Amino acid sequence: MTVIDNHEALAEDGELSEASARDYFELLKPRVMSLVVFTAFAGLVLAPGHINPVLGLIAILCIAVGAGASGALNMWYDADIDAIMSRTAKRPIPAGRVAPSEALAFGLVLSGFSVVILGLAVNWLSAGILAFTIFFYAVIYTMWLKRSTPQNIVIGGAAGAFPPMIGWACVTNSVTIESTVLFLIIFLWTPAHFWALALFKMRDYEAVGVPMLPNVAGERVTKHQIVAYAVLTAICAVLPSFLGFASFGYGLVAAGLGAIFIYCSIAVWRMPDGDLKMIPAKKLFAFSIFYLFAVFSALMIDRLAAMLVSQVGGSF
């Protein structure tokens, strides 16, 4: 009997695992949550208008809790394959520290809590988008797309792209072309980012039968797709300048970052098929994380600089 089977038996007997607070924190996928919080905060900062700081803090906390809930539900459903993959074998459920039933209850309670509090405290549009995001990640991506199509990360990437739109909606109670562009930056960034990881984790995905693109279509097709999405991401990232909600200076910074992103993707494209070290893919994966943080940081700095100039100009 496997660890998971044992814990399912414990759950049926009504017994509880001896999980620590740290184990439950790991269920929230804190690394993913940090990216969600950061981009949601960017949405708050970039949105026109103002939000009460207390309400803004509540909004960020609710978005963070909702993201954590999605992570817990993902780990609950994927516990069987997590136990096999080297990257995930030490997660709380496959490692036997948290029972699957506890993770499920934890994720459901946090989901409901985050959505209701955000709706009551801020507005129901942002709460509705948050609810849809949780559903999309936990059900559409985790339970359906991930194990059924090599385009899983392309479609499923929408779940990770909603946070800045939620942050924007918290301030404006609307969805606009600007917030859609913020969504698209992350949506288009996700395939190149995740397929770089998939290239050097091909054996793990093959072992669990998850149809990631490198395993289904091969390395060469994956490398072509990585370059294509890197180019699309770089183009989309400069759109804020053309749409007027970021300066020309931001556009130059975004263009420079995009050029490096494309260069790294081309290095992956040039990498020989079957390369066991996968160094260019690992470098692209690492840089892609920096790229997203840098783009959204540049957008926020640009926005704050514009506000400062406006205030100084208004004082004369």
UniProtKB/TrEMBL annotation:
GO terms for cellular component: plasma membrane. It is a multi-pass membrane protein. Its EC number is 2.5.1.141. It holds the Pfam family UbiA. It catalyses: heme b + (2E,6E)-farnesyl diphosphate + H2O = Fe(II)-heme o + diphosphate. It is found in: Cell membrane. CDD domains: PT_UbiA_Cox10. Keywords: Cell membrane, Heme biosynthesis, Membrane, Transferase, Transmembrane, Transmembrane helix. The keyword Cell membrane applies. GO terms for molecular function: protoheme IX farnesyltransferase activity. Converts heme B (protoheme IX) to heme O by substitution of the vinyl group on carbon 2 of heme B porphyrin ring with a hydroxyethyl farnesyl side group. Carbon 2 of the heme B porphyrin ring is defined according to the Fischer nomenclature. This is Protoheme IX farnesyltransferase. It comes from Rhizobium aethiopicum. The lineage of its organism: Bacteria, Pseudomonadati, Pseudomonadota, Alphaproteobacteria, Hyphomicrobiales.
